Amino acid sequence: AVSASASAAPVRRLGDWQVNQEQLLGKGGYALVHSCRKSSDGTFDASIKTFKNSTYVNAFESEVRSLQLL
Prior knowledge:
Blueprint: E1 13-14, E2 17-27, E3 31-38, E4 45-51, H1 55-68
Antiparallel strand pairs: 1-2, 2-3, 3-4
């Protein structure tokens, strides 16, 4: 696991998801990946990617579309 840095954007809740800020799973040039849990039932664990800049979302969506063609 990658340790959280002071530069990580504070993320606590995204919709129904409770983001564990202490558990940074990974980071790169585009985004941070945190562990999260669905707050409505508290039993569904997942990971969530949060982008550092909204323009990176377009690049990520383009990459996903390209991979879907493979």
